[in-house]
What we know:
Helix content: 10-25%
Largest sheet: 8 strands, antiparallel
Number of strands: 10
Amino acid sequence: MQKAMISKEKRLHKALIPLEKMHLTVIVANLKNEEMIQRAADALKQCKNQLDMILLGRLPQMTFHGIDQFNNKVVYIKMTEEEHPVLCQMAETVKTTFEEMGVDITGSKEFKPHLTVLKLSKAPALRHRRIRTILYEEYEDVMFGAQTLTRIDLCSMRKKQTSGHYHCESSILWDSCGGGVGESGLPASVTPPCVAEEADSTPDVLARSPCAERESAHDSPLTPTAENQDPSAVEKTREGENLGSEMSADEKTDSASVEAVPD
């Protein structure tokens, strides 16, 4: 799917989320020092017993079907609703525990299960562009598969690993025998976690090139945003598109993130 999108618009390669970094964001925490990181790690461990009571020995089987977008800026794979209740209950438990233990999660948004595959904020030159449905329309009703939830990780947005994965500070692990709580270290059989990207430091003045300014909506699946177009052009661009009503939770940048990671 990502290759098909790039074949239609090569500039999007910098906006793609690598497969090994795909995840579901549960909460975002602002951890300013090692003490706060340790507090967050302790909070995650504290959730284990409550989460086990929610799961009752059955790990969620997450089914991914169809594709959509948020505000023409983020493309994501949708999750079917069968497991939404248990996942939302788990997310609320994590959120409440972190708050009770004094961890700053004011950067978090409402938990909405989705799998981000592309976001324009990763590519500064495309920041003021819009994604058109022509990029992904053939995947809007595709079954991508099912995955089992096996872990929840506390990941750093700043610390990187040579493998390209984000550094994991602490984890809750589950397996067929009930699992346990582990510290860092990612088994090869488990999809590695990822977090929202670091705050972008590239100034807006570098976001658009003179060539991009001159591009027509008919020349590229990426179109200028409303503030850079006249009203009539905006209306033409919006025809046939499904405009999103909210931004992805992954759009929020901060210092750490808690992710549910499929096996």
